[in-house]
Amino acid sequence: MEDEDRQKTLDLVKELVHRLLSHNPAAPNNAARNPNPTDLNNSFRYAVRILSSRLTPSIAPDAAAIAESIKRRLATQGKSSQALSFADLYNKLASKTGAGSINNKWAVLYLLKIVSEDRKVSQASHNFALHLPSLSLDDRELGGESRNFRRGEKGWEDGVLMVAKDPENLREIAFREFVNLAKEENDVSEEVLVRDVLYACQGIDGKYVKFDAGLDGYALPENLKVPRSTRTMVRKLCELGWLFRKVRGYITDSMDSFPTEDVGTVGQALCAALQDELSEYYKLLAVLEAQAMNPIPLVSGSAISLNYLSLRRLSVWFVEPMVKMRLMAVLVDTCKVLKGGAMAGSIHLHAQHGDPLVHEFMKSLLRRVCSPLFEMVRRWVLEGELEDIFSEFFIVSETKELESNVSQKGKESLWREGYRLHSMMLPSFISQSLAQRILRTGKSINFLRVCCDDRGWADAATEAAAAAGTSTRRGSLGYGETDALENLVAEAAKRIDKHLLDVMYSRYKFKEHCLAIKRYLLLGQGDFVQYLMDSIGEELSEPASTISSFKLAGFLESAIRSSNAQYDDRDILDRVRVNMMVQSTGDRGWDVFSLEYDASVPLNTVFTESVMAEYRRIFNFLWKLRRVEHALIGAWKTMKPNCITSNSFVKLQGSVKSQLLLTLRQCQVLWNEMNHFVANLQYYIMFEVLEVSWSKFSDEMEAAKDLDDLLAAHEKYLNSIIEKSLLGERSRPLYKSLFVLFDLILRYRGQVDRLYEGIFELQARNAVSLPSKDKRKSSKQTSKRPEPPGSWVGEGRKALTQRAGEFLQNMGKELGAIAKEYTSLLEVFLSELPVQQHINLKFLLFRLDFTEFYSRLHPAK
User: Fold this and answer.
1) pLDDT 10s digits, 318-360
2) Which helix (H) or strand (E) holds 419?
3) Global pTM?
4) Domain Gamma tubulin complex component C-terminal spans what residues (predicted)?
């Protein structure tokens, strides 16, 4: 059957050659009708050799493209009608299918096109046979057409004809010589090396290409005979296998160690993303392996078929996988010691690349890797939940099981110490300011839930998600959506912080509690303080060890009921309590008495133990100042002119009388100086310090947008009072000088009481010689006063005069010593005021020395 097909083909070729030679326009008429048998035989042999060669045209087998080329050529030659006729004929040819149709249509069209071009080029030739130049053949090869055709199927041994450009077949001869030489130099064929390289790229040792631990890579054995260029090419291609081993080893180690080691959810996401990339890589290798087993399809059946893949073609296929595998290997080396946000930040830095391929690859990888991280952000911002088992998040909880800790101390530290930023886990694509807002938003939700027992934050979070255009579902945020993340955090922070402040102001009455602390601990409620000072003064003069705190609490309650403080909220009044500080040897009640304010949850977030300790310091200072003022007022009540002091001058000798006047004057002048100092100091503290600081604090409370702003405003308010009231570290020397002055004024009050007790005794002695009417008045005024030991009453007039003179002289000396010491201490205090850094202390100096009396008194200083 095959012999019959071959014979039919030869007959058709011979008939075609005969027709071509019969229509040669250059031949004579008779020769055209009957071609020369020799030319016919040579041309036929030449045609058979062409058809039997393995040469193929250097174009793609596309029938439509060749038809379009022929039609375009006819159109450019001005043969439009012929172009239309050809297009119609081609459509009929292309539409014909089934039995009797031509399968290889493009080859027929290509042959017709080549023949047409050859005829145009050879119109000037006299011998048409020149269009089919023959190669010299031995006579043995001319024995029969069938034998020549069968031999041509296996390929001509004497060479292969190259159409038009290489009539001498030089390239084919050189190619065959190169192939023979390569076979002599190689112990292994290229097809085998390609197969081994594909194995090596999967981490598998091939027959020749194996992993060399010494070289840390895949290589050919040294004793294998291959060209150096082939060895180098194999080594370069097998780099992909080395990178593959590194990436696969990281994935295997990470997955095998989970969850015994802290691989983390971000590390798991990275392994999953790398595994997906390796899956795509496996698919590519599968395709290449399939191609390596298939030969290149050729048009000529007699041509030698080579494998589709060569080492050079493999290097082209490996360009993009090599780039991706190198990137993955770099990430593997970088991320071995990282986890969580630090890992995501490191990968993000590698994504900042100018190559679009690298950028897109890293971006797609980051979308997978950052998914757990963004889910943590979403849950923290919208739900206040911190699910960070492997410590990957950039927000760290310092208090374990905080929500179950119901102690006041635990809840007090929730806001300040409960959570903090972990800078090492903060990814580089999240700014520090955004991280702070994220931290504060989640803290606000936890503060509302744990400390305020409030659930209104859930509605605020839902509204924030709707306003930001996102949802509260998992996966609503991802890498590359930084604007959406910032928008969500901004909306959530605005709504949740506003709700938190509303809860603090309305439900827990934060402003009212601040005002209560100002009125009771900072002694802003004047009538309450005055009544408390009057009622508790005698009790506090006793030794501290003998004073009962319950009795003092009764005095406090009495002061509240007797002043306008009784109209305050009962919850606020119940928080004001008596606090007895730690006693020392010799302390009086004045030294250990203090008031405290009980701030419960959530107020203790602002009024912490350290803050209340500062308030106690301020109270002790203000209480000492009020005590000094109260002492001076008491001294004034004792010293003011009355009938007792007026009658004291009756029947006194001139020397005693002058001594008494001098002592009283000295006492009055010293009182005026002390009262001037205390009054101006108290005015400065109460108005220029407390009221001004409170006014600023009130404005900042109204402007606060979150709890951090509120805490900062209160801290600023408290620090302002401490610094302006001479209680700061920089004013410590001034503070000590001031308290020495206070102690001196209290000593002065004792001397005044002693002086006037002596005067009252003198009056009682003089009452003996008074008329009966005056005696009864004097007896009424003095009957209530007990007679101290060594009283002058009952002594003689001479002895009375002598004792009075000595007493007044001693009192004058003591008052003089107090005045001198006071002047010296006040001078030191005033000299230290100008060097203080706080500007308000300079206003205090101006108020104390507004007449420049002290400046003129000590000009040199």
Assistant:
1) 999 999 999 999 999 988 888 888 999 989 888 888 888 888 8
2) strand 419-421
3) 0.68
4) 512-854
